[in-house]
Amino acid sequence: MDVCLSTTAAPTYFPSHQFTTNSSDGKTQVFNLVDGGVAANNPTLIAMNLVTRAVHQDTRIVDKKEHLDHFIVLSLGTGLEEGIEWDAKKAATWGSLKWITHDGRTPLIESIMNASSDMVNIHTALMLHHVKENYLRIQEWQLKGSEAKMDLSTDENLRNLVKKGQELLDKPVRSLNLETGRPETVKNDYTNRMALTKMAERLSKEKKLRDKRSASSALSMNGHSVGINI
Q1: Is the pTM of this model over 0.90?
Q2: Beta bridge pairs of residue 74
Q3: Strand pairing report for 73-76 and 135-138
Q4: Which stretches does the entry tag as region Disordered (predicted)?
Q5: Residue pair 23/52 in contact by the 8 Å Cβ criterion
């Protein structure tokens, strides 16, 4: 519960959250979470960092080199409002108040959150550009009106979002154009459903291969142990 309340503690949208942890050695640490969705609105790079650190800490792995082609990344966006663009000439005349709230929008907060998410998307795409099939970003770019309000949890809006998600499965895969910052269709006949199925099949094969290796290793160790006992 603390994790959920903390990660959603987005300024002006949801309340900040504080919680305390007690470690096994008796130390107490207080966490004050006030910037949900700001520092890591898109947590992809954090996840990749944790995996890399785990590899370096695992004594069973001999080769510690960072092989980016070993990463298979599925990144799920939470949707963006269609046509989010700010007119620079008009924005240049805004004062502090209009940057905080303008025409029912929150330009400053939206800019920070969207920029943070997009930059992670760009960095991940660049790092895995040589193995494009290893990175799949699924994002709904055409939310409209109330659908884009992340603090609107009415039954009607939630049903609309579920419908949007289901429809998104059969839409073509789109990726961010690194030059224009706009989404572009990869292939008209290649849908998100197809891409997810392909990724799931790859992961399933990898899991079976690892299980087979693990079983062979265990069998080998058991055989060696028996030999010693004899």
Answers
A1: no
A2: 136
A3: parallel
A4: 204-230
A5: no
**pLDDT tens by residue, 96-153:** 999 988 887 888 888 888 888 888 988 898 888 888 889 999 999 888 888 888 888 8
Q: Among 118, 140, 143, which residue's Cα sits nearest to residue 44?
A: 118
Domain regions of the chain by residue span: 1-36, 41-229
**What's the CA angle centered on 77, arms 125 and 116, to 5 degrees?**
65
Query: How large is the angle between the packed helices 107-127 and 44-57, nearest 10 degrees?
Result: 40
pLDDT per position as a tens digit, 165-205: 999 999 999 987 877 777 889 888 999 999 999 999 999 99
Joined tokens for residue 191: 């849908």
SS3 content of the chain, % helix, strand, coil (to 5): 50, 15, 35
**Residue 43, pLDDT above cutoff 70:** yes
Contacts of 132 (CB under 8 A, 6+ apart): none
Q: Look up the CATH number of domain 41-229.
A: 3.40.1090.10
Distance, in Å, from the CA atom of 3 to the CA atom of 165, rounded to the nearest integer, reads 24
pLDDT at position 225, please? Answer: 37
Question: Would you call 42 exposed, middle or buried from its count of C-beta atoms within 10 A (0-12, 13-18, 19+)?
Answer: buried
